[in-house]
Amino acid sequence: MIVVNTDFVPGRKIKEALGLVRGNTIQAKHLGKDIVAGFRNIVGGEIKEYTDMLSEAREVALQRMIEKAKEMGADAVINVRFMTSAVMGGAAEILAYGTAVKLE
After folding, report:
1. What is the rounded CA–CA span in Å between residue 92 and residue 32?
2. Residue 52's pLDDT is what?
3. Total domain count for the chain?
4. CATH code of the domain containing 54
5. Angle at the Cα of 80 (from 61 to 24), degrees rounded to 5?
6. Is 71 a residue whose pLDDT tops 70?
7. How much helix, strand and coil, in percent to the nearest 5, is found in the chain?
């Protein structure tokens, strides 16, 4: 599956737009890591526990979006974007979305 954040696939022609595809997840760290992250917030610097959590969540959301595109018979997903929103303290939703297309 080709996944790009542009509105075209270089060197390929889009035959048909199949529609919007999306994948999302809401993830949180367990209490122990949340406490460690709280301490890091006090002293400054990267909060690696949340960096890891969001990286993992982006991958899950992206894979779910790709699965939806495959179910539609797509060859590619174009205009891929990510959106993040806080759901509650220590938990975030990641949404991946784009347009499923068939290529010539």
Report:
1. 17
2. 84
3. 1
4. 3.30.110.70
5. 20
6. yes
7. 35, 40, 25
Q: Please count the other Cβ atoms lying within 10 Å of the Cβ belonging to residue 64.
A: 18
Residue range of the domain that includes 32: 2-103
Q: What is the pTM of this model?
A: 0.84
Instruction: State the DSSP code for 104.
Output: -
Q: Using an 8 Å Cβ cutoff, are 80 and 97 in contact?
A: yes
Rounded Cα distance, 23 and 43, in Å:
35
Model pLDDT, residue 34: 56
Q: How many residues does the chain have?
A: 104
Query: What is the rounded distance in angstroms from the CA atom of residue 5 to the CA atom of residue 78?
Result: 6
CA angle 47, 49, 50 (to 5 degrees): 75
Query: Cα–chain-centroid distance for residue 57?
Result: 7
